[in-house]
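Protein Entry — a single chain follows
Next Lines — sequence and tokenised fold
***
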Amino acid sequence: MDLLDRVHDIIEPAIEALGYELVRLHHSGGRRPVLQVMVERADRAPMNVDDCADVSRTISAVLDVEDPIPGEYVLEVSSPGIDRPLTRLSDFERFAGFEAKVETEMPIEGRKRFRGRLEGVADDRVRMVLDADGAAQTVALPFGAIRRARLVLTDDLIAASGGRTN
């Protein structure tokens, strides 16, 4: 089990008990290692600074007890924001109808980068409609092949978020 898997298993129950969902974990090394924890409210209400502080205090205490990360590091807790990363299969279903950028590990149909409207999920494949030279093309990308994905900030996304841009 790698470091992020261990950290995930340690902090996710505490995050869920507070009424949040873990969106993404990232650990960067270097002179000043950083553990980034991205969370959102389970009720889908907007996040605020107090939400991040509550999660930070709770998981900091859990990490201090379990101590899965050797040495010192900085803990950063944040919300995903409006042009959020899409990290779970459920994210692709939830944000169907919105524009996204997706990058795959290996080329699919001759390419690794896709931009288009999400159409949901079928059989663990993310469906997208791409606008290729004026002609709509539907692709089905295996979820396991996706390296990174993110919503694209559009007027439709801003309107759906109630006008919030953060």
Remarks:
- Residues 3-78 form a domain with the GMP Synthetase; Chain A, domain 3 fold (CATH 3.30.300.70).
- The mean pLDDT is 92.
